[in-house]
Amino acid sequence: MQRLFSVLAAFLILLFSAGSAFASTHTVSRGESLYSISRLYGTTVAKIKSLNGLRGDIIYPGQKLTVPDRLTKYTVRRGDNLTTIGKKFGVTAAAIQRANGLKTTVIRPGQVLVIPIAAPNSAATRGFTVSRADIDLLARLITAEADDQSYLVKVAVGAVVLNRVASPKFPNTIAGVIYDWSHGKVQFEPVLNGWINRPASPEAIRAAKDALNGRDPTGGALYFFEPWVKNRFLHSLPLKLVMGAFHFA
Fold first, then answer.
1. pLDDT tens-digit profile of 123-152?
2. With left for phi above 0 and alpha for psi between -120 and 50, is residue 244 left, alpha or beta?
3. CA dist list (Å): 22 to 15, 17, 202
4. For 89-117, what is the mean pLDDT?
5. Side-chain half-sphere of 119: how many Cα atoms within 13 Å?
6. In this predicted model, what pLDDT tens digit does every residue of 153-195 receive, in sequence order?
7. Could you give the CA distance from residue 143 to residue 139 in angstroms, rounded to a whole number?
C-alpha cells in the first residue's frame, strides 16, 4: 500500500510539473495588446483568451496573463547584455525585458532568461533595428494619415511603411521611407503639408508598435491611397485590401 501511494504521489508530481512546463505568466506592459503578446509567445489570441477565461480583447497594464510556454531559456554569461542576447535570437532587447518582467535592463551572469519567439514579420526578424525616434516618427505619420480611421487601419498604414523598409525598391530605414523624395515627388502628403510634425496620438503609438511587432493586415502592401486620387500608377497596382478610407496595393 505504501509503495502504491509512493507511485501515485510521484505520478502526480510529474503530472503537475509537466503541466506547469507548458505555461508561463506574462505581466502586461503599457501599449501591449493580446495580438502583440500572442506574437511574443508564438501563439494565438484565441489561445491566450481561452487560458485566461477572457471574453473580450481588453487588457490593462500590470495584468498577469497565463501564456503557453514555448520559450527558449538562456543563461546569461559575463559580458552579455539584453541587446547582444537579442541579436543572437533575432528578437529585441525590449521583448526579452517584457518576457522576463524586468524593470531595468540590468542582468547578471548566471541569470536564466526566457527568450520570446520573434514574430515572422517583425522588425527584428526583418533585420533592422528600431529606435524610440523611429517609433515616434512612424506614429506621427499614422496620426497624420489615419487619425480619423479605425485602429486596424492605423496598424495597416504603419505596416505599409515597414514593408517599404524591407523592400529593395525603397530606402532601408523608417525615416528614409517617410521622407523619401524619389523622382522629385514626396511619398507621403503629411511631409509636404507639415502634418508629420504634429504629436502622435496614443492610439497611433500603439498601432506603430503593433506593426513593428509584425502585425500586417495588408498582407504585404507597399502603397495605400484614397480611391478618389487620380494616379494611373496607383490604380494599376494589384489591390490587396480595401479598408476604411484607403485602398492598399
1. 655 666 678 888 999 999 999 999 998 888
2. left
3. 11, 9, 34
4. 82
5. 20
6. 999 999 999 999 988 889 888 999 999 987 678 889 999 999 9
7. 6
For residues 225 and 64, what is the distance between their CA atoms, to the nearest angstrom?
40
Of 239, 143, 156, nearest to 198 by C-alpha is 143
Residue with cell 481588453: 58
Q: What mean pLDDT is predicted for residues 104-124?
A: 78
161, three cell numbers: 511603411
Pairwise CA distance, residues 235 & 249, whole Å: 9
Q: Tell me the three-class secondary structure of the chain, residue by residue.
A: CHHHHHHHHHHHHHHHHHHHHCEEEEECCCCCCHHHHHHHCCCCHHHHHHHHCCCCCCCCCCCEEEEECCCEEEECCCCCCHHHHHHHHCCCHHHHHHHCCCCCCCCCCCCEEEECCCCCCCHHHHCCCCCHHHHHHHHHHHHHHHCCCCHHHHHHHHHHHHHHHHCCCCCCCHHHHHCCCHHHCCCCHHHHHCHHHCCCCHHHHHHHHHHHCCCCCCCCCCCEECCCCCCHHHHHCCCCEEECCEEEC
Cell of 30: 503599457
Handedness of CA 36, 38, 42, 44 (dihedral sign): negative
Torsion of CA 179, 208, 164, 186, to 10 degrees: -30
